[in-house]
Give the backbone structure.
Amino acid sequence: MAVKTLINKPLKVKSSVKSKLVKQPNLKTTPAKTFSVKNIQVKQVPVKSVPVKKSVTPLHIAVAGNIGAGKTTLTTLLAKNMKWEPQFEDVDDNPYLNDFYEDMQRWSFNLQIYFLNSRFQQVMKIRQNPKTVIQDRTIYEDASIFAPNLHAMGLMTTRDFNNYQALFTLMAKFITPPDLLIYLRGSVPALVSQIQKRGRDYENSIRIDYLKRLNERYEAWISTYELGKLLVIDIDNINFAENPEDLGVIINKINAEIHGLF
């Protein structure tokens, strides 16, 4: 199998994709703050937004997207601005992640079982939480995208894949999907650029063809997603981490989905 790896060189990406987000006029601005998530300093940008109606019942909001799409950053910013409780993907403490990127075939099943267990526990806790929770990546992405992709690439045996699917099918009977799923759609060049910016050592060996395959599966999954409300955000031409207008528009769109403001 021919392997292409990410090389730590900046990529110049000219995307023809135009953001569908529109600016909202005459909106209030909140002051900038800085806060830390998992030892990473993230700047809370000024956000322009409309008044928010408080939810009568706590909600489960989830952010989905490929590696490098910006799920953790958006989860952090929305948690701060919307006063939600964040639930982050277990990356830093994951005992299999480094080994997986070094030898995917050997560690694929172990990694996917770890994620499946971790996210199942998250969902069970989210539904018992009296507060609205925003979750970084869902259990459905593991079962619909990552595990099938590893199996299709020959990196997970059919025996292990069938075992995994049987376990997920059982777990799915005990959980409910998010009230709102936010999908961050990005081209492969945009994802590569984001991965290089954050500079995680174990991600240097991620293959371009691996990201491409994941993107294709994400698009196929989202095109048939009917488990709940869905909001798609195109990341190629926006910068919600630093641009207050981009983040403000996303917040307004979320409010519209949750509260029917528009």
In short: Confidence is low (pLDDT under 50) at residues 1-40, 50-55.
